[in-house]
Amino acid sequence: NAGVTQTPKFRVLKTGQSMTLLCAQDMNHEYMYWYRQDPGMGLRLIHYSVGEGTTAKGEVPDGYNVSRLKKQNFLLGLESAAPSQTSVYFCASTNGLAGTSYEQFFGPGTRLTVL
Amino acid sequence: DQQVKQNSPSLSVQEGRISILNCDYTNSMFDYFLWYKKYPAEGPTFLISISSIKDKNEDGRFTVFLNKSAKHLSLHIVPSQPGDSAVYFCAASAKFGNQFYFGTGTSLTVIP
Fold first, then answer.
1. b/e B2-23 (16+ beta carbons within 10 angstroms → b)
2. Residue B91 reports pLDDT greater than 80
3. What is the per-residue pLDDT for A45?
4. Distance CA B97, CA A37 (A)
C-alpha cells in the first residue's frame, strides 16, 4: 500500500497562474482533507470531503477549489495564485467520523511557492 | 481564533529524561484528542490519541493525559531518545464533527 500520495512534491508559480494539486489514497477511506502549514500557524484546514462527490469548506477556503470525483482522489485547485498561498500543502484521509478512534493518514506534502 | 493552542514553540531535553509537551483547548465540545509527530519534509504521523471518557492513555514510552476541567492535555515521553526529535502537533475533534483542529506545534530536541 502506498498510503496517501501527493503530486507534485514541489512547484513554483507566478502570481495569477493556476494549478491543481492531486491527492490519492489507496486505503478506501471515505474522508479526505486538504491542509496548509505555515510557520507559527500549525495545520489549517482548507477544504474536506466526507465521501465521493461531496466537498465542504474548512477554516481557510478562500482562493481554493476542490473536487472529489473518485473516492480515492481529492484535487485542490488554485485558479489565480497569490503570494499569500505560498505554503506547504498536506492531504490527509481517514475512515471515520472525527470523534471516533480513527486517526488521519497524511501525505508527504507539496511545497508551493508563488512569486 | 485558535481553538487548540500549544504555547511552547520549542523544548530541549536530555536523552533519557522525560519530555512533557502541553496543549490547551477552548472548545468544550471537543471529545477526542490526538498527537502527531512530524519530521522535516514529511507528513505528520499519528502517535497516540485519547477519548474524553478517559484521563490517561499509554502506548509504550508515550502517555497522554487529559484534564477536561482545565481543558488541557499533555504528552509525556519517557525515556526521551534522539529519534524523538521532531515537531509535535496536538489535534482535537468534536463528537459528530468532521474536522480536526490542530495546534501550532512544539519542536522537541532530544540532546544525546
1. ebbbbeeeebebeeeeebbbbb
2. yes
3. 95
4. 22
pLDDT at A41: 85
CA B47/CA B18 separation, integer angstroms: 17
List CB contacts (< 8 A) between A46 and chain B: none
Exposure b/e, A30-50, CB count within 10 A at least 16 = b: bbbbbbbbeeeebbbbbbbbb
Q: Which three cell numbers stand for residue B112?
A: 544525546
- pLDDT per position as a tens digit, A20-32: 999 999 999 999 9
Cβ separation A99–B94 shorter than 8 A: yes
pLDDT of residue B13 exceeding 60, the answer is yes
Measured between CA atoms, the residue of chain B closest to residue A58 is B99
Tell if the CB–CB gap between B100 and A98 is shorter than 8 Å.
Answer: yes
Residue with cell 523544548: B11
Residue A97 has pLDDT above 70, yes or no: no
How sure is the predictor about B80, in pLDDT bands with cuts at 50, 70 and 90? very high
Q: Read off the pLDDT of each residue in A34-45 and give the average, rounded to a whole number.
A: 92
Chain B positions touching chain A (beta carbons under 8 Å): 2, 4, 6, 9, 31-32, 34, 36, 41-46, 49, 51, 89, 91, 93-105
Interface check A102 vs B, CB under 8 A: no
